[in-house]
Design brief:
Elements (H helix, E strand, L loop, with lengths): L1 E5 L4 H13 L4 E3 L10 H13 L6 E5 L3 H7 L7 E3 L3 H9 L5 E5 L5 H13 L6 H12 L2
Parallel strand pairs: 1-2, 1-3, 3-5, 4-5
Helix pairs in contact: 1-5, 2-3, 4-5
Length: 144
């Protein structure tokens, strides 16, 4: 079970990712947006992040034009480790070393096939813990 959201610039990629995940099959909760009409990405990000922080979902996926705005918005919340990924390696390392709980991509940056590969790698890669957990503990310690 995963939660997903996008702004208007990420809508098309979000829909492709949803179809891909549902074919696995995986249950997907969609917090919007639901068409290509302009929306404010911080509002969508806030809806999604709150549902992760509540414990309802453990991981989520967000897409905006570049992925930058969604990443900035999500990472303002303590306990969120949103990682902007654009290829196999960034997706893999974001899980192994950073225990990413929120995958972010840029709908205007990444192609569909690469995005689907990123999603698959991100979902299937486990956190390594150890020294990486020590670093995450330091990040939490330094967060306000």
């Amino acid at each position: 079970m995963i939660i997903i959201g996008s702004d208007h610039a990420g809508f098309s990629l979000k829909e492709s990712i949803k179809k891909h995940l549902e074919a696995i099959p995986m249950k997907v909760a969609d917090v919007g947006c639901f068409d290509t009409n302009s929306v404010h990405y911080p509002e969508v990000a806030d809806l999604l992040v709150k549902r992760i922080l509540s414990g309802e979902y453990h991981r989520g996926i967000m897409i905006c034009g570049t992925g930058i705005g969604m990443s900035i918005t999500a990472n303002r919340h303590k306990g969120i480790r949103a990682t902007l990924c654009h290829d196999y390696l960034t997706a893999k390392m974001s899980r192994e070393h950073n225990n990413s709980n929120l995958l972010v991509m840029g709908g205007r940056i990444i192609g569909i096939e690469t995005a689907l590969n990123v999603v698959d790698v991100w979902l299937s890669t486990e956190f390594q813990g150890g020294r990486h957990q020590q670093r995450l503990d330091l990040i939490e310690k330094f967060s306000s």
